Amino acid sequence: MRLHTLQSKLESIYEFQVAQRIDDFLTTDSGFVSGFTDSSQHAREQVLLQQEGNDYLLSLYLDQQVYNRFSQASVPEAMCHQQASAFCLAVEGVSHFLYLCWNAGFEREVTRLELEIQAEVDKYLMLLEYANGDSGQVHPWLFENWHLEVGLSEEEQSRYEKANTYASKYCRGLQERYLRIGRKTEMLRELRRFYRKTQIQKLNMIDKLAPTIS
């Protein structure tokens, strides 16, 4: 599997296309990442963004082992462990990349929470495709059997937990409103509207659909 395959699938879902191709922005060089962060540790997937004047430098970092597992795999077999984990990290990176590029085209600011919520939704959609549409299998695997990376700050932990909570509620709603009754076309229309909303609009929408979110 290749990263540009994921990019094409997500662009098709959301009905847009960006000029940038993900493979041109990929690095697996961990040394390169150290130039963008003061931390001695870094995640296995990171989107690196740096401003130079009016321009922005953008790169996607994937750990070499993660990239190897992803590129050598066909599909995540039964949601199992290392292969599916690498798949999700790759989807997350492509999702971040696309969301930044698309919003930049409209000169819209993007928050880190927005990026994480959209990435969780995108992982759900991509896992659905490669799990033959079995939402009953995908949802608990992605949103219930997860853990935070070691070494995250309290702010980062809070952001990831909030993103997981909101994305879980939203994807559960997609199951109930569309997938269980075979309304995929209507679901795609909603997903395209959701993608184009601001963070506040997205959170308000999910709160209305699932008012029990704290």
The radius of gyration over CA amounts to 17 Å
Record the strand order, biggest sheet. Answer: 1-3-2
Shape: globular
Judged by helices, strands and strand pairing, the structural class is mainly alpha
* Biggest beta-sheet profile: 3 strands, mixed
- Helix fraction? 55-70%
Order of helices and strands: HEHEEHHHHHHH
Low-confidence stretches: none
In percent terms, what proportion of residues is strand? 5-15%
Distance separating the two termini: 38 Å
Number of strands: 3
Mean pLDDT across residues: 86
Whole-number count of domains: 1
Q: Can you describe this structure?
A:
- This protein is mainly α.
- The chain has one domain.
- 58% of the residues lie in helices and 8% in strands.
- It contains 9 helices and 3 strands.
- The chain has a 3-stranded mixed β-sheet.
- Helix 1 (3-14) packs across helix 4, helix 5 (112-130) crosses helix 7 (154-177) and helix 7 (154-177) crosses helix 9.
- 28% of the residues are buried.
Helices and strands in order:
Blueprint lengths: L2 H12 L11 E2 L2 H4 L11 E8 L2 E8 L1 H9 L8 H24 L7 H19 L4 H9 L10 H24 L6 H12 L3 H11 L5
Parallel strand pairs: 1-3
Antiparallel strand pairs: 2-3
Helix pairs in contact: 1-4, 3-4, 4-5, 5-6, 5-7, 7-9
Provide the descriptors you would attach to this structure in a database record.
214 residues; mainly alpha; 3-stranded mixed β-sheet; 9 helices; 3 strands; globular
Please outline what is shown here:
With 214 residues, the protein is mainly alpha-helical. It is built from nine helices and three strands, in the order αβαββααααααα. 28% of the residues are buried.
